[in-house]
Design goal:
single chain; six-stranded mixed β-sheet; binds zinc ion
Length: 245
């Protein structure tokens, strides 16, 4: 049995990550891959980093991970993200930063599965794949028999599938995988879903049946919200979790 869990955009939400890890354990996955943004927004960046590191989960770098290890002043961030970033930087020690610095922008796993945070064509430009045109650039990068790329970044679960000469967009669900097609699958966000569903989102790749399964997991949102408020982070970061935005 070969099941691989794909998690993304944990964003320092420890209760959500722990609930997802429990589900992964129950499903007896043989590996976990992480698509970046372990930190940022919520109140447990250190705990989440240590969980990912402790489980030796291969991970790529997300834009919030990148900002957390940099000293620059990101002008593009909105005020809420910016103040969460400054707080996050104050929490991380050199070891945590070294760990994030080692995370590459892209990974091609031994099974040919490609992992990126944002896009495959320019992984460190942090573009958002929100339509078929934008997905095409990433899908065209799938060469040499590779046909499966997983990403995150938008916090909105989606599948972009190239078949019959065009790219099609689908709501994420359980998807049969064919080697003749190409897939860009956004697994959604563990720690800050933005598709109106407040449950943590992640995915399972079953390599025996060649099927992707979308998982939604309930977690203790009130506890995450308490931690955000207690840390002095912007209240909006807590309220958005109960709206899934
Ligand atoms: Zn993110």
């Amino acid at each position: 049995m070969s099941r691989i869990a794909l998690i993304s955009d944990i964003h320092a939400n420890q209760p959500a990550l722990e609930a997802v890890l429990r589900d992964i354990e129950q499903l007896q996955c043989s590996a976990i891959y992480c698509l970046g943004d372990i930190v940022g927004y919520n109140a447990n960046p250190v705990e989440c980093l240590e969980l990912v590191k402790g489980l030796q989960i291969p991970t790529v770098r997300g834009n919030h991970d990148e900002e957390a290890i940099s000293d620059d002043n990101p002008q593009y961030m909105n005020p809420v993200a910016y103040s969460a970033l400054m707080w996050t930087r104050s929490q991380l020690n050199e070891d945590h930063k070294k760990y994030l610095r080692r995370a590459p922008f892209q990974r091609i796993q031994p099974n040919g599965v490609v992992l990126v945070h944002a896009t495959q064509d320019k992984p460190n430009s942090w573009a958002y794949v929100t339509n078929c045109d934008l997905a095409t650039h990433s899908l065209n990068m799938l060469v040499e028999g590779r046909f499966l790329c997983f990403n995150g970044h938008t916090h909105v679960p989606r599948a972009f599938i190239q078949h019959d000469g065009a790219v099609h967009e689908y709501e994420l669900g359980d998807i049969p995988l064919y080697k003749e097609f190409k897939y860009l699958i956004n697994v959604g966000s563990v720690g800050q879903p933005r598709d109106g569903d407040i449950r943590a989102s992640y995915g399972i790749l079953d390599e025996d049946t060649m099927t992707f399964y979308h998982r939604r997991i309930e977690y203790d949102i009130a506890e995450t919200q308490r931690r955000i408020i207690n840390a002095g982070l912007p209240e909006m970061l807590a309220t958005r979790l109960s709206a899934g935005i």
